[in-house]
């Protein structure tokens, strides 16, 4: 499995206020108005705190897999231990990235490159990063787009579904795909789309085996790479 190109999709707490009543004889201290502070966007994921509010469901489960949204730190970073896990996951799929061209050197994928790639995906307000764990170990990632900017396309998209190469052919990809579909079903979405790069026969076979059908061929907007667009109705659970 590898990344299904999301760039066909265009051009990607509540705070509880302390309500203790002040003592009637206590004088409240004068407070000067504060101006909002905006930290410099030094980290590629800063400015994406709103991603917390986009998490539509806290988690989804199947036997052997737990799917949860990526949550950033208060500084809007990916927690360092998680970024290490993600980098290892991406690096394990170097063969796919050699095909996609998403990283300068697919045999040397760095943490800062993974952080930048995720920041690019999350720049879209409807994007969500989902992390798949099995027995506590990160085994996969999915990136989804809830709404396509083209009003003629009512379907959500799977922009990326990737499984750790060390657990390929163990059914983890199917579990992850079905968990993503279940999230969309819970939101009453009726179908889902994705794109597969031409030449990625393995990914095409994977998706068609899960009931996806090719409905279009086009090039992605960022790199002009030819892709097949696949769609699957979500009217019932497989």
From TrEMBL:
<feature type="compositionally biased region" description="Basic and acidic residues">
    <location>
        <begin position="1"/>
        <end position="21"/>
    </location>
</feature>
<keyword id="KW-0808">Transferase</keyword>
<protein>
    <recommendedName>
        <fullName>N-acetyltransferase domain-containing protein</fullName>
    </recommendedName>
</protein>
<feature type="domain" description="N-acetyltransferase">
    <location>
        <begin position="81"/>
        <end position="235"/>
    </location>
</feature>
<dbReference type="InterPro" id="IPR050832">
    <property type="entry name" value="Bact_Acetyltransf"/>
</dbReference>
<dbReference type="InterPro" id="IPR016181">
    <property type="entry name" value="Acyl_CoA_acyltransferase"/>
</dbReference>
<dbReference type="InterPro" id="IPR000182">
    <property type="entry name" value="GNAT_dom"/>
</dbReference>
<keyword id="KW-0012">Acyltransferase</keyword>
<feature type="region of interest" description="Disordered">
    <location>
        <begin position="1"/>
        <end position="41"/>
    </location>
</feature>
<dbReference type="Pfam" id="PF00583">
    <property type="entry name" value="Acetyltransf_1"/>
</dbReference>
<dbReference type="GO" id="GO:0016747">
    <property type="term" value="F:acyltransferase activity, transferring groups other than amino-acyl groups"/>
</dbReference>
<feature type="compositionally biased region" description="Basic residues">
    <location>
        <begin position="22"/>
        <end position="40"/>
    </location>
</feature>
